[in-house]
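Protocol step 4 of 6: structure prediction from sequence.
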Amino acid sequence: MPLLQPVRIAQTRSLWLQEALVQESEASLPPLHGSVTAEIAIIGGGYTGLWTALRIKELAPETDVVVLEADICGGGASGRNGGLVLGWYAKVKNLIAVCGQEEGVRLARAATDAVDEIGAFCAANGIDAHYHKAGLLNVATTPLHVWDWDARVAELERLGLYGVERVLSPGEAAERGGSARYLGGLFQPDAATVQPALLARGLRRVALERGVRIFEGTPVLELIEAERPRLRTPAGEVIADKVAIATNAWAAGLQELRRAIVVLSSDMIATAPARKRIEKTGWTGGEAITDSRLMVHYHQVTRDGRIAIGRGSGALAWLGQVSDAFNTPGRRSLAVERGLRRFYPTLAPVPITHAWSGAVDRSRTNTLVFGALGGNERIRYGVGYSGTGVAPSLIGGRILASSLLERDDEWSNTRLNRGAAILYPREPVRYFGGLLVREATRIKEESEERGVAAGEVVTAVASLAPARYPRRPVK
């Protein structure tokens, strides 16, 4: 009978959630009291849980669905992320390695279709999530990160993926991104940005309108496996025919999933509004930007003219437990600010007004990990977004919905729905090994940003981390 790990609520809300909650007359829904029954119970009121509920209502409108959220919908990763709505073309080799070429390419296309589908869903349902499709600049910020971009595009075209990425010259990267630090890279036209908490809260509203029962402030303390699973909460319980675990990084506390994912922090800051200063840099097109580090910087310009920028791979979880360290960036936010100031030195006078942090999960294969918990088809789970979950969470919702409704389709049958393809080592090797790899990666990437290649030992240890982008250096 799995005990779910306690959820520590962030004391400081993200900029996104602060903005979203100001717009709502009712900030939260009441918690569960007493015993209720449901056909399907979903643990987690973020993107995955809400997309799952909405998909179930689309396919089987009469199904009784309950969502239990420990905080408020969007209080976890769905309201703290960078708001970059990206597909999976950067992960197509990972997808092929796990699923085979045909299925891997199909999934890459489906995830990119999800970028447009999110925009269409927002438009059709009156969700003003600041959706803006202007593409992604994936840039090199040091000569040591200049890769053979042409070979990468050629490989995508060999798979039949034409026009999904285009090589940027150094001049174009610098001009469009507004930084002399940008030395070239790739442009993905099928990418967008959103205000992520407005998206999460909008999904919540639509789910309520479609008959989904949502209880916020209701952590699930224990999942009792029986003929009808029971979810024990602080003041009640839900008895359901089937259950979906859609808690993202928090699912790592379950013993079965502990080696399927590793839990890391991702830390964000936002500047004061400074649209005119930002426009003077040349970054005026609204593109999302990421650099080529493993500890990636990701950033966008918000509707009110701020730069919101984050950096991945900060804190690391012991035994998959998401501690308070994941909610408090502290000194890690200073490292994010250093990246911002390095890219945009002319914005030095612009102050930082917000800083926040959150837990993200990463699978060994850099792909989704979905399946039946302990082989029990009544209890499904979905994790493994590996830092790019805004658009793929729509795919995750389809996988969970098809599985829970026992549909025989491309979503229930995907290889991503059969558990982890490769596991991480057991503790304490995973934790202390992860600390070692993280530190080596930090040293390597900070050295590279100074134009100095790291030593052989550091490089070898850092190479143990799964690459974000399979690539090759220019010779």
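Step 5 (inspection) to follow. The longest strand covers residues 352-363.
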